[in-house]
Each structure stands twice: as structure tokens, then as C-alpha cells.
Amino acid sequence: MKKYLLIFASLALFFSFSGCDLVQEETPTKTQMEGTWEVTKAVDMSTGQDITSRINFPITAFHLSSDGTIISTAGPLIMYIVYGDSKYVQIASDIDQVFNYASLDLNGGEFFIGGGVETRFTLEMKLEGLPGQKALTTLLELIGIGNDYLDVVVYHKFQDVKIDFTEDGNTMYWEIDNGTTAIYNTKDNYGNYVLWQGWPINNFSKVQITMEKRVKDIRDLIEDTAN
Q1: Within 13 A of 196's CA, how many CA atoms are on the CB side?
Q2: What is the pLDDT of residues 127-180, one digit of tens each?
Q3: How many separate domains does the chain show?
Q4: How many CB atoms lie under 10 A from the CB of residue 56?
Q5: Consecutive H or E run containing 3
């Protein structure tokens, strides 16, 4: 009898340690996110419309670094999400003049996520209005943003963005959905956040974004697409 008990105890310990190894081997979501990603499909979830061709100037891509920083060509995508389809139509003809990614002038941002296997994260993208230049200020004027809210850097933060991957980790899915909330801020001269009230935070578009992992640097992707 003691022999059988020892066998059962040994088996229980074996499966217990095996289970721990499986958990430990699961890659943290943050690690999976790191690298260069190209948006291959973007869909407005409220209408089912594929908006990919409307946001690519000439390509929508992100580079996510291990320290949580982002560089991207996602300005048009963020404009669509924040201001919606109807306002985006008003500015579409001017976007390629404002976001001149062919000159490698990229948008910055950050992402924030827990250290384990996560299903939601926070995305913050920075867009800047430059006084006296044909830049974001032009687009905001076309949309109807008041003068008091034009000449600033706006930090568009989306909390609880849904995230998922294919099994091989080469395709990443983001969803800005009904579980997502938005906060738009500027910063004061001390670097503290100040609420930006130039646009309602509840009017953002719900969008599903599909991205493929790329080996090339984001700048190489832009140059390859532009040529």
C-alpha cells in the first residue's frame, strides 16, 4: 500500500511541476507586443466598413519598444478614431499634406500594460498642432475645433484597449470597443497633464485593428511603400 501511495504522490508532484513550467513558459503580452507591426486591416466596428485604404499615407505601422514608447505612422488612424467617420471625410484630402511620413516625421506615443498575460492595455498617442504651419492645426480648424484648443500637443489616451494574438504570435489584434474609455490631455509647463476639452471623449469610433509583425524597421517599411 505504501508503495502505491508513493507512486501517486510522485505523479502528483510531477504534474504539479509540469503545470508550473507551462505557466512560466507563457510569454507576457508586453513582450509579444514589442517590435514593428504593419496594420493590414482596420474596420469601423459600428458599420463594418474596412477603412484601411483611407488611413494609409502610405502605410500605417507601429514600432513598440521594450520601455513602452511608440513611434508610428498612425496619425490618420488616430484622427479617425477620435473624430469619427463624418469629420474624417472633411479632412481626408488634407491628411497627406499634414502627416508627411515620407520625410520620416513620425508620431510618438506610449503603451502601458501589466507584466503577465493580459487581455487589455492602455494606448496613448501624441498629435501636435504647429502654429504658423500647415499641420494638425489645419485639420482641427476644418473639423471646427475652437482657437483656444489648436496650438497644443494633445495626448490621446485610450484605456482598456482589447488585445489578442494568433497562436504563432505574428498577428496582433487591437479593439477599441465598448470596454474602452478615452482621456485627452495636454501638459503644462511642469509636464503635468491638463485635461484637453477640445473634443468630447465619448464620441470616439470603435475600431478593430489587425497587424502583422515585420522584420524590417518602421522607416524601411515607409521607404519601401513610398517607392
Answers
A1: 29
A2: 875 444 446 777 888 888 877 777 678 999 999 999 999 999 999 999 999 999
A3: 1
A4: 18
A5: helix 2-25
